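[step 3/7] fold_predict: job queued, chain A
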Amino acid sequence: MIKNYYKDESLRKKMSVLANQTFGLDFELLYQKGYWDKAYSCYSILEDDKIVSNVSFHLLELEKAGKRYSAMSIGSVMTDTDYRGKDYARQLMNEVMKDHPVDVYFLGANETVLNFYPRFGFKPVILNKFVDNNLEHYIVGDKGKKLDIEKDLELIDSYVKNRIKNSKDMYVYGDDYLKMFYMLYLYSDHIYLHDGAIIVCEKEEDKLYVYDIYQLEEKNIFDLVGPYTKGVNSVYYSFEAKIDTLEAYADEEAYLFVKTEKIELLEAWSYPGTSVT
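[step 4/7] structure written:
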């Protein structure tokens, strides 16, 4: 078993090969952009001169109902198909949790592994998202500047690192790496600078999906989001925005697993979508 090897180019690239095979992601991009550092840890099995199994994690601070908890977000749980059945994932998961005791461990999963994580004491938790169908408050005006992930990376990074809390309840501290992961890999074509804030959103037919908002000081959310609501009937938020008319709904396509002895953390989460691994 090898741990925390991000400075070793050979091992790092071997991990990226497995990630590419499993998820279609090249993690080397994270390193080259400066986001694979000591904050993003990997525990892996090296065999036959390649990494054949891996568990990655990120240590965070989670706020829920006004209380803060030490937390770990687990991701990139993967094993090469030729090396499955050797209990590698279990060994890695147990080692990660033994080395880093926290109040709560959590991870996102897909439907193919729903029976796997309960073996480690994880329980499924409802993940809420939010919709606003009352659009009369939104101010439709000129859209902001669309940002280029390459040319404007430093600006985006600055907003992510210096942002203020944008949600009513659940919030995450220390997740800058995760935010930038989403900016680089998933939302690079949907980042806008408007009225001193960055809005990450995407329109699909008559729906607007707001993935995140990064602001350095409190702004009127209807001013920020309004310019993107033309022709829209509903605005969907991946976080609990500070809007009284928001309606919560369970995300049936998301599978969130939580391990904790804090009973209050087993209730429904309104966890920010750009903080889920």
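[step 5/7] annotate
The longest strand covers residues 50-64.
The chain has a mean pLDDT of 91.
exit 0
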